[in-house]
Amino acid sequence: MHRLAVLPEPSPSPEPASTAPALQVLRLSPRGRPQVFRLQRDWLTVLLPLTGHLQLRAGGDFWSLPARHVLVWRDGELSGIASGHAIGVSAPLAAWSRHSGPVEPLPWEAPCPRSAARALLRLVRAGRDGDADLVDAAWPALAGALLREQSRLLDCLARCTGRTLHRRKQTLLRLLRAQSLIRRQVERRPGLQQLAGSANYSPHHLLRIYRQVFGETPSEYAARLRLQRAWRLVRHTQMPICEIADSLGFESQSAYCRAFKQAFGVTATQARKSGLATRVPRPAPSIPLACGPQA
After folding, report:
1. Nearest-angstrom CA–CA distance, 252 and 242
2. How far, in Å, are 111, 162, 221, 268 from residue 280 at the CA level?
3. Rounded to whole angstroms, how far apart are CA atoms 147 and 97?
4. CB burial string 7-16: b at 16+ within 10 A, e below
5. Rounded Cα distance, 14 and 269, in Å
6. According to the model, what pLDDT value does residue 189 have?
7. Is the predicted pLDDT of residue 199 greater than 90, yes or no?
8. What per-residue confidence (pLDDT) applies to 288?
């Protein structure tokens, strides 16, 4: 039996104004066996695996969050299994708003910047010790560190539809929901109808507004993600090229090789044999990638 770590339900009674808003701290230390966890639905959660991977599940989708990558999650129930040490914090959106200002950290998944990792660790320690004053001091630091790293994503707010900041945020969050689905199902290549349903838009409207905000279509974004993963598999594994092509859903090995050469200027074999930089060369659209896996 795995040990289950569940963040407790929020208290139905309002908190006194003198105390820090509800903050739940997550510390996972498997100690030889995986630890299962489940997070609050509709809370904003920040997760950081320090060692090993977090195997995550949202709805029917499964994916892996590598060590030293941060996940900002605010889109429904999330559960998973930790094979290594991980830390995190979770709280209602209203509590985050009191510490981050008019815009809370947005859904995001990327290598964790050092400033955000330090701020998260300070907040976890303050929450663990029950020190409301330290929590009040550390929480804005974490929110600020995340928002600084999300600057390009925040720039997208200006391209979202809506007369008010609240409406523009809602538009961006709906688009990010579709983008998250693409990342979680990049090998299966979700269809436009499924993506539109996840964002609660019609397919035609999703295509139009997605391109307006991110400068590319959902299919172009998915193609770039597949190529990023192809580069990592070529550079960091010994998986045969034919198996990489098949695992990433390319129609054939030749189609994979053509796409790889067009994107990176070298063949997959050359990339594997050469001393090219291990950082993933990212084929850039007209607007830089706003969120999602980054090299």
Report:
1. 8
2. 13, 35, 15, 13
3. 12
4. beeeeeeeee
5. 61
6. 81
7. yes
8. 38
Q: How far is CA 70 from CA 221, 281, 287, 291, in A?
A: 20, 21, 23, 12
Q: Give the chain as a 3 state SS string.
A: CCEEEECCCCCCCCCCCCCCCCCEEEEECCCCCCEEEEECCCCEEEEEECCCCEEEEECCEEEEECCCEEEEECCCCEEEEECCCEEEEEECHHHHHHHHCCCCCCCEEEECCHHHHHHHHHHHHHHHHCCHHHHHHHHHHHHHHHHHHCHHHHHHHHHCCCCCHHHHHHHHHHHHHHHHHHHHCCCCCCCHHHHHHHHCCCHHHHHHHHHHHHCCCHHHHHHHHHHHHHHHHHHHCCCCHHHHHHHCCCCCHHHHHHHHHHHHCCCHHHHHHCCCCCCCCCCCCCCCCCCCCCC
User: Which residue type sits at 130?
Assistant: G
Instruction: Lowest mean pLDDT of 31-35, 210-214, 260-264, name the range.
Output: 31-35
Sheet holding 3-6, edge to edge: 3-6, 35-39, 78-82, 54-58, 61-65
pLDDT for residue 7 is more than 50: no
pLDDT tens per residue, range 91-140: 999 999 999 988 999 999 999 999 999 999 999 999 999 999 999 999 99
The number of C-alpha atoms within 13 Å of 251 and in the hemisphere containing its C-beta is 5
Distance CA 137, CA 143 (A): 11
